[in-house]
Amino acid sequence: MAELNSTILPNGLTVVSAALPARSSVSLGIWVGTGSRHEPKRWNGISHFIEHMLFKGTTNRNSLEISEAIEGLGGSINAFTEEEHTCYYARAQSRHLPLMVDVLSDMIARPTFDPVETRKERSVIREEILQYEDQPSSVVLDNLNTLMWPDHPLGRNILGTARSLASIRPPELTQFHREHYRAGNVLVAACGDLDHNRLVRLVKRHLKDIRKGEPPRPEGISRRQSAPALLNEDRDAEQAYLALGIRTGSRTDPDRLSIRLLNTILAENMSSRLFQMLREDMGLAYQVDSTTSFFSDTGHLVITAGMDTRNLEKATRLIVGALHRLTKEAVPRKELKRAKDYLIGQSQLQLEGAENQMICIGEQWLGHKRLLAEEQVYDRIRKVTAGDLKSTAQRFFRPENLNLSTISPLKSTKRLMDALRIPSP
Fold first, then answer.
1. Residues in Cβ contact with 171 at an 8 Å cutoff, skipping those fewer than 6 apart
2. Which active-site residues does the annotation give?
3. Within 10 A of 401 (CB to CB), how many other CB atoms are there?
4. Residue-wise pLDDT tens for the chain (425 aa)?
5. What residue segments make up the domains of the chain, in order of their start?
6. Hey, which of 36, 67, 97, 270 has its CA 20 to 30 A from 385?
7. CA 277 to CA 317: how far, in whole Å?
């Protein structure tokens, strides 16, 4: 990543940029440190709803004028909502940076939440939810979150529900926006052919009227799991879906890099243990994967697979067995080196693009309030030992941390529950 510059404005808003003079374009993002985790249950989905509505009109532009302003220059504009942040971003030739800052700032600071547009967008999001519910591979993950984080915002769908959407109207959108879209909760991140001081001047000009202050704090994780948990959604289909979630540490946990390496070793790529065993060696599953998520105070590692229902129990036992082996046996030196090289290599490839660098800046700054140099992170990865992985596996790969979500026609899940009872390390 290029050399970074950061400035905290008097109102608390932060501007961070990475200059890449060899590029001819700029990727610009305005980040808000609020996502679905910050929502009350009755307004589940409001962060994502606001993301949609900020494209529907401001006091200065209607929806068509917003998109045409950027796309008419050959650029692009989009947004996404996650659990702990929302990002509005654009990319265009660097000479158009003033207009990019103008348009995104206008959306962030001056939305109108027009009642007619709100009704239309509510219907659009309902269709998005219905499309999502038609995808078992997505639903099994949604069910897993419900299982892992019951009665907590992390356990709810980012999109919300038909019921919660019905209760969200312009006054609720305005209130939530007023409480959370505040200067102390906003980051402007940019990467590409730009001058940091010029970017700061543009941000000062176009976001001078953003409200000061900090947003309300999100609800913490208080519930502690004491036994493995299972949730099966009964669907009459030959294909079954499995998502095994393991409670891990937060984004600041000292074992975070060990968790990432264990994830790579388990099922992050085609040479991983579970992919080779379940698909290549035994032919039990077509799709096998694993991912990690880290939040401010918790996290999880999730293993997913799709297979014939007849293979569900066997696959579960094999996955749990693979977890158990990592608590008992040291990862061989060559396998650990491959995992490290993969993790570092993937990071380097991702950071070749200016947009990915901008996203990396946003996620790091909102998550850590600082930016780690790439080589510093890579050096920490290289220093992780097989002993570190074994102790981390012993810490997290325990029965009380396991949660299994399945979609299958099984009428009894007793044997699946039995398969979850990994021996304690």
1. none
2. 51
3. 20
4. 667 899 999 999 999 999 988 889 999 999 999 999 999 999 999 999 999 999 999 999 999 999 999 999 999 999 999 999 999 999 999 999 999 999 999 999 999 999 999 999 999 999 999 999 999 999 999 999 999 999 999 999 999 999 999 999 999 999 999 999 999 999 999 999 999 999 999 999 999 989 998 888 888 887 678 899 999 999 887 789 999 999 999 999 999 999 999 999 999 999 999 999 999 999 999 999 999 999 999 999 999 999 999 999 999 999 999 999 999 999 999 999 999 999 999 999 988 888 999 999 999 999 888 777 788 899 999 999 999 999 999 999 998 899 999 999 988 889 999 988 866 55
5. 4-206, 229-419
6. 270
7. 12
Within 10 angstroms of residue 161's Cβ, the number of other Cβ atoms is 14
Tell me which architecture the domain covering 4-206 has in CATH.
2-Layer Sandwich (3.30)
Give the integer Cα–Cα distance in Å for 291 and 266: 10
Domains 4-206 and 229-419 are alike in CATH topology: yes
